[in-house]
Design a protein that fits this description.
The chain is of the alpha/beta class and about 325 residues long. It contains 15 helices and ten strands. The protein is globular.
C-alpha cells in the first residue's frame, strides 16, 4: 500500500457522559476525507486508544471505516502489549476493510523488550499472521523504548512489513533507516495520478486505470516540526497529530517538498513550527483536541488521567492557531 503523503492520527470524540461520540467521529472522518490528506489513522496515540476498552476500540474502528471515503488509505492502530491480542485486533480491522495495521512497539517489560530478539520475535509473529500489511509504530516519548534502527532494518526484509512510523524526531535515525532499507524492493498499486489504490476504491470504480509503483520500505515520521527535514533524507510521508487540526497546512509542506520549492518549504514549515511544538509536543492530546475545535473539527474533552486545558493554555492555543489553516 502506498503510504506517501499526510495522515492525521485522528482523535476520539467523547460526549458529555464520557462515552465515544460516534456521530462526531463520523463527521470528523467525513471532513478529513474531503481534505488533501492521503489517508487516516484510527486508534493511534492521539486517538487515546490506550484509554479505551477493547469493545470501544472496535466500535471506533467500525465507525471511522464506514465514514471514510474509499480513496483514502485507512490505517488501524492495533498495537497492544500482547502479540496475540494485537493480531486479534488486526484481524478485526481486516474484516472491516482497513488497508494497513499500525503496531506500536510493546514496552512494559523493559528488561526483556530492550533485547533485540524480543522485538524481532514480536513483529515477526504479527507480520507472519496478520491479514493486513504492517507498519511499526515507534513512539519513545510515550513508551520510553526506542526501537533501534538496526532492528528495523533487519525486520524490513519481512514481506508483510511495509514501513514504519518513526516518531522520535531524530533525523539521523530516519536517514539511517532509509539508507539501510534501500535494498528492499516492493511495489504498490496506484492510480494513473499516482495516488494509492485501495481495495475499496478499486471495488467502487472497477474501470479505474491503475499500475504498480515501486515503493520499497516506506519510512514515515511523526513530528510535524521536522517534516521537511525528514523528507529531505528520504521519508515518504507523515502520521502527525498536528494534521488532526491542520491537515491543509501539513499537506502544503508535503506538496512544497514534492515540488522542490525550497523557499516555500521553509515558509510553510516555519509557519507551523511553534504551534506544533507547543500543542503536540508539550500540551499533547488535550491541546490537539482544542485546536481541532478551533478549526471546525470536533475535539472535545479527554479521558482521565488526561486533563482539559486551563483557560491560560486555551488562550495560548488560540493564539498559536490563529493563522493556521484547517
Amino acid at each position: 500500500m502506498l503510504l506517501h503523503g499526510i495522515f492525521p492520527p485522528i482523535t476520539t470524540p467523547f460526549d458529555a457522559d464520557g462515552n465515544v461520540y460516534h456521530a462526531k467521529l463520523a463527521a470528523n472522518v467525513a471532513r478529513y476525507s474531503r481534505s488533501p490528506v492521503a489517508g487516516i489513522v484510527v486508534q493511534g496515540s492521539t486517538g487515546e486508544a490506550i484509554l479505551l476498552s477493547d469493545q470501544e476500540r472496535r466500535d471506533v474502528l467500525k465507525c471511522a471505516r464506514e465514514a471514510a471515503a474509499p480513496e483514502k488509505v485507512l490505517i488501524a492502530g492495533v498495537g497492544i502489549e500482547s502479540a496475540a491480542e494485537t493480531l486479534r485486533l488486526a484481524e478485526y480491522a481486516a474484516t472491516l476493510g482497513y488497508d494497513v495495521a499500525m503496531v506500536r512497539t510493546p514496552h512494559f517489560y523493559k528488561a526483556q523488550i530492550n533485547r533485540p530478539q524480543n522485538m524481532l520475535a514480536f513483529y515477526r509473529f504479527v507480520c507472519d499472521r496478520s491479514p493486513l500489511p504492517v507498519i511499526i509504530y515507534n513512539f519513545p516519548q510515550a513508551t520510553a523504548y526506542d526501537i533501534p534502527a538496526e532492528v528495523v532494518i533487519e525486520l524490513s526484509a519481512h514481506p508483510n512489513l511495509i514501513g514504519i512510523k518513526e516518531s522520535s524526531g531524530a533525523i539521523a535515525k530516519v536517514k539511517q533507516m532509509v539508507d539501510g532499507t534501500r535494498h528492499v524492493r516492493r511495489s504498490a498499486p496506484v492510480t494513473e495520478q499516482l495516488q494509492a489504490l485501495t481495495p475499496r476504491l478499486a471495488k467502487s470504480s472497477p474501470t479505474l486505470q491503475s499500475r504498480d509503483l515501486e515503493v520499497g520500505f516506506q519510512v514515515m515520521v511523526g513530528a510535524a516540526q521536522t517534516l521537511a527535514s525528514s523528507i529531505e533524507v528520504g521519508a515518504v510521508g507523515a502520521i502527525v497529530a498536528f494534521a488532526c487540526a491542520a491537515p491543509a497546512a501539513m499537506h502544503e509542506i508535503y506538496a512544497a517538498c514534492q515540488a522542490g520549492d525550497r523557499p516555500l518549504v521553509e515558509q510553510k514549515q516555519q509557519a507551523i513550527a511553534a504551534a506544533a511544538t507547543r500543542i503536540v509536543g508539550q500540551l499533547s492530546v488535550p491541546a490537539v483536541k482544542y485546536a481541532c475545535d478551533l478549526n471546525g473539527y470536533f475535539g472535545g474533552t479527554v479521558r482521565l488521567p488526561l486533563l482539559p486545558l486551563t483557560p491560560a493554555e486555551k488562550a495560548e492555543v488560540e493564539q498559536l492557531m490563529s493563522t493556521i489553516k484547517g
